[in-house]
Amino acid sequence: MGTRGRDGDGGLLAGLVPAGVVARELVADLRRDGDDSGLSAEEAAVVAAAVPRRRHQFAAGRRLAREALVDLGRAPVPILPGPRGAPTWPVGIVGSVTHCDGYVAAALGEASRWRALGIDAEPAAPLPPNVLERIASATERTWLGERSTARPEVAWDRLLFCVKEAVFKAWFPVHGTSPGFRGAEVRLDDGDGFVASVTGRSRASGDQVEVAGRWVQGRGLLVCAAWS
Ligand SMILES: CC(C)(COP(=O)(O)OP(=O)(O)OC[C@H]1O[C@@H](n2cnc3c(N)ncnc32)[C@H](O)[C@@H]1OP(=O)(O)O)[C@@H](O)C(=O)NCCC(=O)NCCS
User: Which of 42, 74, 126, 174 is such that its CA lies 20 to 30 A from the CA of 111?
Assistant: First the structure.
């Protein structure tokens, strides 16, 4: 099992999302090269007081999301933040946006096929001290230790964090709550797949829900996609 080679021609994200989901990504240093001219007036107002890096990341995410909307046959409309910052997608669309230094991505699909999508990108580097203790269960820490021994080239602790961020983004739009990092128990398969069992009090269901996804490490990044 090598670190997934899905970042060939199609980029990191394209190989992770299910068929029918449109993935768009940008590899660029937006601290230097950013541009926020493509925002609508309402979108620009959202980040008017933000630092340039945040404005540029927000604008790049909106641009990628609008490209994906067009690919899905929709109009490239403004996308405003809704409750707790989740993007408000046009009716019939689900999607997700992520950005970290050097990378921005958006993934969108039809709401008739998915309840929600979540994507997250992180630097492929160990978590800062004391974070793992807050986000990982005892079971997760056991498999993290085993995997770290077998494949030290993967930033496993950061991967767990990345998975839980993507799962949150695929959970929140449906349930309107945060299960908390300890409310999601993650299992990895032997390839690039994962399943998170999420338990949380929610408007839609108080039951445990399984959120599936895939991950990749490449180009100094970890990228995860989750869907339900
Ligand atoms: C919201 C959160 C996921 C953002 O993640 P991040 O790694 O800091 O930043 P990213 O760049 O990857 O993602 C930011 C994007 O997430 C999206 N987002 C923000 N809040 C969201 C929410 N409540 N639901 C879904 N998507 C959300 C937005 O599109 C945002 O970008 P934008 O403001 O430019 O539109 C994070 O701050 C958070 O709250 N994490 C908690 C996760 C958690 O509790 N997990 C428990 C296990 S399920």
Answer: 42
